[in-house]
Amino acid sequence: MEKTINAQTAEAIAELAQVRSIIKGLQERESELRDSVIAGMGNAEVAVFRNQAIARLTQVTRTTIDSKKLQEQYPEVFAETKRETTSPRLTLV
Questions:
Q1: 48 forms bridges with which residues in the sheet?
Q2: C-alpha gyration radius of the chain
Q3: Alpha carbon distances (Å) from 64 to 31, 35, 61, 70, 77
Q4: pLDDT for 42-88, tens place per residue?
């Protein structure tokens, strides 16, 4: 289904595309800076500058479920425990 939109909505779509582009660039820069800080800290857990701690590096463990493997090996358990949600996804074309 298609709908002809008004100028305000078209402008919002254009601005959204710009914002997404800016965010992507900022996320890339964040990753670069993070890698630089981690490299600069070496094996240290705390970064100190002018006698003040300014960054802390800790290891975090996260447990995840391999849902594809679970579904293949234990389909009944997968069916009983899965949760499905529906939400709108906006794709800019």
A1: 53
A2: 23
A3: 23, 24, 10, 12, 16
A4: 999 999 999 999 999 999 999 999 999 999 999 999 999 999 999 99
